[in-house]
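Chapter review: from sequence to fold.
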Amino acid sequence: MQCVNRVCVASESGTDTGPPVDAGPWGCLGNVTFDAAPPGNVNVVVPLIDLTSQKGVLASDVFARICAKIDVQCNSPLPNGDAGVIVSPDAQGLLHLTIPAGFDGFVLIDPIVPDGGAPSDGGDAGQPNVFVPSLVFFNPPVEHDLVYSTIVMVKTSELVQIATIEQTPIDPQLGAVFMQTVDCNSNAAEGVSVVIDSQTSSTQGFYFKGGLPALNSPSTDKTGYAGFVNAPLGTRTVTGTLSSTTQKIGSATVFTKASMISYTTLAPAP
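The token string follows.
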């Protein structure tokens, strides 16, 4: 059996050219390969939802830019097909992106502040309660048209609440990494434990349980969501394993920036 892009086919006559097979949620592990990226562009839909309301994030809330991996400040955003460089979610909270096949950069999502200022311009009124600036990293690189994992956007007050539940004050000089774990069928994966390659004394990992962060949980619930707050800045790698067997499912590499959330997906990988 061989699983290309996590789609498994049966072996026939010594070759992996048989019909697609249902290998179960984890049957592809150890057999995953990825095709070379085809030429041209792909269309990707990225759903954005509000953590509290569970409704779509609107164009009045955020805007996005597509950025090359090397352009960490996104000073030269890439065009979204023929639609320019600024991307706004539609009325359902969906970002519609046109990117090169195999794109391994990121999408920078910035909040729209009511008075038109930057999120750090709270002044005497304090930090405005807007969505936390975020970086979305595609893992694995996108090779065909798809709907990506839902990005659960968090407001500044909500991030503080998460940290309060974790008994870990947010350090504005550090970053955060949030992820969704998925199985061989690209469904949200329960029972996955995640680790990060570097921590500070205040780094705290968590899993979502019943819509709330849980410190003492050993693995993801059916939503597949997990994360780390107060993560060290720079290039970070998160790795997922099956909590029941400790078998590795895959890793994802992102970079973290101060007072921002880096999002990715942990999926079965070679």
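Two observations follow directly from the output. The chain has a mean pLDDT of 87. Residues 112 and 118 are 8 Å apart (CA to CA).
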